[in-house]
Amino acid sequence: MKILGVTTILAGLSAPAVTFAAEAAEQVAADPAAVAAADDAGGGLTEIVVTATRSAQSIQKVPISMQALGAETLAQRQVKGLSDFAALLPSVSFEGIGPGRNTAFFRGIVPAGGAYASVGYYLDDIPITGTEVPDIHAYDMERVEALAGPQGTLYGAGSLAGTIRLITNKPNLDKFEFGYDVEANKYGKGDFGGQIESYINIPQGDTMALRVMGYYRRDGGYIDNTPNNGLLNNGSPAIYTLGDNNPNTNFALDNSDIAKDDYNTIKEFGGRIQILWQPADGWEITPQFTGQRQVSKGYFGYDPRVGDLEVHDYDQTKNDDRWYQAALSIHGHIGDWDVVSATGFFKRRTKTLNDYTYYTVTYDGFGAGYESYLQFFDNCTGSGASQQCSLIDPTQYYHADTHRNKFTQELHISTPKDWPFDVTVGGFYQRQKNETNTYYAIRGLDTITGYTATGGGDVAGGLIGVPAMYGIAYDEDGNPFFDTSDVINPNGNPLGTMLLGTQAVKGDGFYITEQNQLYHDKAIFAEGHYNITPTLKLTGGIRYFWTDYAVKGFAGVAGSAANTITSIYIPTGEMGCPTPLPAERLQCLNTNFRAADQTGRYKEDGETHKVALDWQFQPDKMVYANYSTGFRPGGFNRPLRIRNFGPVDVAPFKSETLTNFELGVKTTWNNIFRFNAAIYYEKWNNIQYGVVVSGAQGAGMTGNAGKAEVKGIEYDADLKLGKVTISTSGAYNDGKLKGNFCNFALDRTTSSISQLSSCTLGEDVPESSPPTPQVAAANGTRLPRQPKFKGTSSIRFDTYMGDYSAYLQGAALYQTGATQDLNVDSNALLGNTKGFVSFDFSGGIKKDNWSLTLFLQNAFDKRGQLTRNTFCSIDFCSGSSRTFTIKPQFFGIRFGQKY
User: Which of 10, 80, 314, 326 would be 255's cystine partner, CB 3.0–4.6 Å?
Assistant: First the structure.
């Protein structure tokens, strides 16, 4: 029932006027973009036409809860990407750390593990589904559609909880069009920015048209990377002790070289080209190409321990995200049958840098015995036993190069319109290949001379940075000593503690992940409608799916590569890989040592379905009941190595399912008041959740946490009183765990990791080190990342001043606080976000073909908290978590012309 989006946002916030039209289905279908504009500023409400159900119809006639944001709304609310339009959708939340690195959720269904997304993300009819979706620029868009609840029948595995569709303006055969918009803006206490956008539509005779869009955008920053002045974020001295108790080994942290105000800038450019060709009556062929590059710098959250909108970063943070999508849509008729084919190819590459200093700070805090993680040497003088080397900065940073290629093909056919019922049947195929190359690295690690042996920092008489002759052992009291029976380098110094060589597994990576992942998804589906009576309609749908997944690669440190049980070196076929690994990818494999080809595999099949009944008891009033299901496939877990035990198997994680029961109304009253609402109950089974198992040395796996339920209500309403429009929309979601979430632990009898069959609150897993609670989350634990209530309201005044049309608008965004992790111990470390209210104001004038708009967002500069995130495991890095907020105060001016 998210029509308010339609309303609040569409009618209320943007359209000066609207008119509800109860057109015949054939008339609506003829013009999917049709919007009946009011004659003047005092008109009624507007009809919104959507294609969410694969056919064009008024949003008021669609028996599901959904919202649509029109082009005017997107422009007037300064919507540039995902985080902007998600703020206007009450049932949508998201998490992430910046543009191109965010993931959206619906109704509190927030998975914390697994390979697939829970929300479908579409550009027109082509899916870009996945986690950390690209920040598609919202210009020359017809609308954004948000479909709440499972959409698996028509949209498949990536739409467990909902679907977001970005619908572009299509080429127009009837007229030449050209427009441009320029904007200058500034964050209140931050930097200046701006953008220029333009489009052109050129008819080519009666059967062909070309439409092109292009833009450039620069966002000024608002987060300050401040000098640390010798202190960490908690106020303690910024000095590494380097994993021992030796006062002579230390390293001072200093970020003054990269400290900078307003460091989180965005530079972005892109465009789209479309061709519409009508080779024959009833046939349309539309090729389309969209491309974008976005370079964002800095972190878009801040550290309250440092200061308001401030952080301490010690290395560069940058995300270079480039992608393109090529699509071909064919729509035609074979006899009276309607045929649609949608083919797409999506290619994306992201190159990422991230400061990872506080992971090193965490390890440094573990105390003695971690020298080999922290003491690395270069810049040496002398040779042999007299060689003396200097410590380098052991601070870790993160760099990644990820490639994603996706091919999709969908074909569906609809029955003739003169049949007593209509059915759409179709097939879907998708192939996706991901290539990941992630490095948790130390600058210069690949060229070091050596590193300190474990215990070397505290061994009596030990010489730091001098080549070792003997190995180091520990006595019964835990004190290190030189083991003269263990000669590791005859040319070393008897008191030396430095092992020659490098801890790098590849390049400068201390820990790397190098994998190829391959996904195949196939499905057949059908959805139909039957009018039981002229006002009572039955809808039913079903989808059968087949999915398979394969992964091959390496993950680990140098010791993982050298393991002769789990790792195979491809050039020789021998177990155990020499390090550093060669430059060529996938020369060392340890994904699945149980398989001869080291490939981890998973496949499954199943079905999802829906049934809906809607009663149009008056031409402008409808009540409906909707039952639908959704799914998210399971996946493979690689075997793990447990400290002091050995290799263990980890079972695959199961697919998630979501069952939705929904009852809603969609009503319009005298064309001046519109009210839509839905109540729903959702059952979420086999929640996929990523965990780090005790003793696995930081390696993770995905398990199934159990069951949960969500009870909620969504509403939207618009009231048009002459020149004044009042709009509001909101969603209340009460999501809770049903039953205890029992933790995962080593089963020594089967040499496997499995979920505890039963668990007791307050008790630890036997023999776990460090101690692991048996109960990760108790029955009734609130689902994370979703505020219980989120809403938006606006008041808009439209008028004329002589030859000028003008408007003034005020809007409020509000939401309650939210938990941040399902695991109660992890959530206690992160802490909940707080509720907030923020206010936006805008006004504009328009005459003939030009318009001028002034806007002020977050007028009172509130720190509306959305999520909290850490750089690494919450247990280790909660002390350096960052808080991601709504934009601070943001204002600007926008001028545009349309011809």
Answer: 314
**Whole-angstrom distance, CA of residue 438 vs CA of residue 508:** 11
**11 touches 72 (CB < 8 A):** no
**What gap in Å lies between CA 75 and CA 78, rounded to an integer?**
5
Return the ∠ at Cα 178 (arms to 173 and 183), rounded to 5°: 145
pLDDT tens, residue by residue, 437-452: 999 999 999 999 999 9
Candidates 565, 539, 566, 542; CA nearest to 555 is: 566
- In whole angstroms, give the CA distance from residue 519 to residue 446: 34
Strand partners, 168: 141
Q: Which residues of 524-542 are buried (b: 16+ CB within 10 A; e: fewer)?
A: ebbbbbeeeeeeebebbbb
Query: Number of helices (H) and strands (E), helices first, in the chain?
Result: 10, 56
Cis peptide before 770 (omega within 30 of 0): yes
Are 411 and 340 spatial neighbours (Cβ–Cβ below 8 Å)? yes
Residue type at position 476: E
Burial environment of residue 596 by CB neighbours within 10 A (0 to 12, 13 to 18, 19 or more): exposed
Reduce the DSSP state of residue 15 to 3 states and report it.
coil
Residue 90's region, left for phi above 0, alpha for psi from -120 to 50, else beta, is alpha
Q: What confidence tens digit (pLDDT) does each residue in 621-670 have?
A: 999 999 999 999 999 999 888 877 888 899 999 999 999 999 999 999 99
CB 325 within 8 A of CB 346: yes
Picking from 775, 634, 657, the residue whose alpha carbon sits closest to that of residue 709 is 657
| Gap between the Cα atoms of 245 and 348, Å rounded | 47
Distance CA 566, CA 640 (A): 9
- In this structure, are residues 189 and 211 in contact, taking their beta carbons and an 8 Å threshold? no
Task: Supply 566's token pair.
Answer: 């789990």
Please give the span between the terminal C-alpha atoms of the chain, in angstroms, as a whole number. Answer: 36
pLDDT digit string (tens) for 69-85?
888 888 878 888 888 88
- The strand pairing partners of 522, in sequence order, are 429, 546
Ordered DSSP codes for 157-200? GGGSSEEEEEEEPPP-SS--EEEEEEEEEEETTS-EEEEEEEEE
What DSSP state is assigned to residue 45?
B
Cis omega (within 30 of 0) on the bond before 580? yes
